[in-house]
Amino acid sequence: MKTSIIIPVYNRLDFTQKCLESIFQFGSKYDFEIIVVDNASTDGTKEFLENLKEKIVFINNKENLGFAKACNLGAKKAQGEYLLFLNNDTIVTKNWMDILISELDENPEIAIAGSKLLYPDETIQHAGVVFAEDKTPYHIYSREIKEKHYVNKKRKFKAITAACMLVRKDIFNEIGGFDENFRNGYEDIDLCLRIKELGKDVIYCPESMVYHYESISEGRNESYDENRKLFLKKWSDKVQQDDYMYMEEDGTQNQYLRLKNQAHEIDRLRNELAFIKESKFWKLRDSYLKTKLMITSPKKLLKKKLSKPLYLVDSSFRSFKDEGIKTASIRLWNFILYGKGTLDPESITKKEHYEKLSKVLKNFKKN
């Protein structure tokens, strides 16, 4: 067996169906197997996968074990020489797998190969992972148009995403697989860095193209802060900033400077959004969605009826991306607090924005 495709899933049957259909549609010139690891889905995923047992290997977990544990379980069942980790919210394209396999077959020094990932709107989701000044990893050129020359260069990185990652099974087993101390975040970057310490290379292969909806699983980002702290504890003294080197090579230094200036704003907003997910509002979100009621202030719960559907709040979180963080946050907060619809981010200053956020967060903490 050449390759074992390992797909961890938790609900979102609609995405899993489309992902599997695309794999079966395009196939490969190499022999492969598909291992689907279900983390106790409740939306009919289990029943659907059980009916595919002639086409796939199905592992049914009794609880949601998270990404790392699910992938490690799949790897233990794998018969392939290579392991191809793939998110269920992906749609593959022609030759996607063959290109990655050929890269490892022809270059023994390469241990990991990854695809160019696109959002459904054809912009870049992944073209390699780089490290910022504070040692935080991020996807370089995310949301860039796919035709740019610098997202179509095959080249080495310290890390790539495991949303679509081909890795040599013997090396994966040698380092003990994914670190299960991470919970749905940073485990792929950690894996790449540990393999790099063995003297092996990680390469980005833009000719292999996959569409990725990104982070659609429930609870996907719940442990972001804990994962980041663990990652920095392990790697902050070992990893060096490298994003500017790629941008200097590509002639995109101005973009680097812009990203650097946005870094503190992004971190702050991320922390604020993480806090809101632990607030009374977020915990009672489902009931608000059903009743179309909202919080006007933490001390006046369920008082004001909405003039617009509350699903916009949920969609704001779902569409949340680094590059759109300011827009998403302003839209979300104004809707939650005032029942307003979309607000042009340019119509509010940063100072006013942060004053509103700070005031509301203090109120949430009091309640």
Task: Please give a handful of descriptors for the protein shown.
two-stranded antiparallel sheet; Spore Coat Polysaccharide Biosynthesis Protein SpsA, Chain A; 14 helices; alpha/beta
Mind sketching the topology for me?
Layout: E1 3-9, H1 13-26, E2 32-39, H2 45-50, E3 57-61, H3 66-77, E4 82-86, E5 90-92, H4 96-106, E6 110-118, E7 124-126, E8 129-131, E9 137-139, E10 155-157, E11 164-168, H5 169-174, H6 187-196, E12 201-212, H7 224-235, H8 243-250, H9 253-276, H10 280-283, H11 285-291, E13 293-294, E14 304-305, H12 311-318, H13 325-338, H14 350-366
Parallel strand pairs: 1-2, 1-4, 2-3, 6-12
Antiparallel strand pairs: 4-11, 5-12, 6-7, 6-11, 8-9, 10-12, 13-14
Helix pairs in contact: 12-13
The CATH homologous superfamily of the largest domain: Spore Coat Polysaccharide Biosynthesis Protein SpsA, Chain A
Distance between the termini: 57 Å
Judging by the overall fold, what is the CATH architecture of the largest domain?
Alpha-Beta Complex
Give me the count of strands: 14
Q: Report on the biggest sheet.
A: 10 strands, mixed
Quote the CATH topology of the largest domain: Spore Coat Polysaccharide Biosynthesis Protein SpsA, Chain A
The arrangement of helices and strands along the chain is EHEHEHEEHEEEEEEHHEHHHHHEEHHH
Task: Please estimate the helix content.
Answer: 40-55%
Instruction: Quickly give the structural class.
Output: alpha/beta
User: Into how many domains do the coordinates divide?
Assistant: 2
